[in-house]
């Protein structure tokens, strides 16, 4: 006869999603449905009819006309929060206080202070909280970081990371609304910040930065920063909402380098990593995977086993502190709420 604890571990985690955002409806919800250890139980939206239309692909999922109804559902064990950045702290804390585990989109909060409030709420409720940097679960990133950390390219001296796409003329896009805590650094530059932290395993000791803001009171449309990690180790990062779609990551050591052409969103394509050592280039290819599915499966596994998520909250707080430092170094008042 199977033990009770084993039965609990094998029981799928029942998920709720707050809002009908594109990332939730088109990426994470399908990932939950495809996962080996989760089920999409409910979705909450301020527009009930719209939510029913968006989620018509999963008729077995309950659709509620508010976010709070998802939190009030006693069957929901974990919630995914893809709301605008400015709403993360409110609804994450609401969910944690309702006894739900929380997977919250990046960046976790708008400020370090908000992030600490969320961490305190998670600790007080004895529930898990994780920032949703799905790219960290892709095998190409795990493989690259393992090679870097075992010294295969020697001492790392420089990291370059970029993420940009063009949304000029899309004035209604939430990414460029200051009241929703938008901005290129908050939306895509945070990936570059996170990648540098993942490589070096620490926060930068100092930051220099510039941002381009189109109008007074607006968000940063482009960001460039130099992160100094001490002892001759640097991170050169940039993000933009006014450049062609591109992303890349390169790690340069004193004995070689590793380049990841599409580090953050390699959807529906093979992953590939190039390694240069002793003047010879080699490549490693990775099969197409759903990194969102790998992320939600990891989080659900942590819920069932009691293990801490691999992406810890101390790293999250350090990332938030670096984002704040970049805005301060650039002379950009933040947050603009």
From TrEMBL:
It comes from Ktedonospora formicarum. One of its GO terms (molecular function) is nucleotide binding. The keyword Oxidoreductase applies. Keywords: Oxidoreductase. It comes from the Bacteria. This is Oxidoreductase. Pfam families: GFO_IDH_MocA, GFO_IDH_MocA_C3. Residues 14-132 form the Gfo/Idh/MocA-like oxidoreductase N-terminal domain. Gene3D superfamilies: Dihydrodipicolinate Reductase, domain 2, NAD(P)-binding Rossmann-like Domain. Residues 145-258 form the GFO/IDH/MocA-like oxidoreductase domain.
């Amino acid at each position: 006869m199977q033990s009770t604890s084993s039965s609990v571990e094998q029981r799928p985690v029942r998920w709720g999603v707050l809002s009908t955002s594109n990332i939730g409806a088109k990426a994470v919800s399908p990932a939950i449905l495809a996962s080996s250890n989760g089920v999409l139980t409910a979705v909450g939206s301020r527009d009930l009819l719209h939510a029913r239309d968006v989620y018509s692909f999963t008729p077995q999922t309950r659709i509620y006309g508010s976010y709070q109804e998802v939190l009030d559902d006693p069957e929901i064990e974990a919630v995914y929060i893809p709301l605008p950045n400015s709403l993360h702290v409110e609804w994450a804390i609401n969910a944690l206080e309702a006894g739900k585990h929380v997977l919250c989109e990046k960046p976790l909060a708008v400020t370090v202070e908000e992030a600490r409030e969320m961490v305190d709420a998670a600790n007080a409720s004895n529930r898990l909280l994780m920032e949703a940097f799905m790219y960290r679960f892709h095998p190409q990133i795990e493989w690259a970081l393992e090679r870097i950390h075992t010294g295969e390219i020697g001492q790392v001296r420089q990291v370059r990371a970029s993420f940009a796409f063009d949304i000029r003329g899309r004035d209604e896009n939430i990414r460029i609304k200051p009241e929703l805590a938008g901005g290129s650094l908050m939306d895509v530059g945070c990936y570059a910040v996170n990648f540098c932290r993942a490589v070096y395993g620490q926060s930068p000791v100092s930051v220099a930065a510039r941002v381009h803001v189109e109008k007074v009171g607006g968000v940063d449309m482009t960001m460039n920063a130099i992160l100094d990690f001490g002892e001759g180790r640097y991170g050169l990062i940039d993000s933009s909402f006014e450049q062609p779609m591109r992303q890349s990551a390169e790690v340069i050591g004193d004995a070689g380098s590793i380049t990841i052409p599409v580090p953050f969103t390699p959807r529906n394509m093979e992953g590939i990593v190039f390694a240069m050592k002793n003047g010879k280039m080699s490549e490693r290819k990775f099969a197409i995977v759903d990194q969102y599915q790998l992320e939600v499966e990891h989080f659900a596994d942590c819920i069932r086993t009691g293990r801490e998520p691999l992406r810890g909250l101390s790293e999250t707080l350090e990332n938030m502190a670096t984002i704040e430092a970049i805005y301060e170094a650039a002379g950009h008042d933040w947050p603009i709420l």
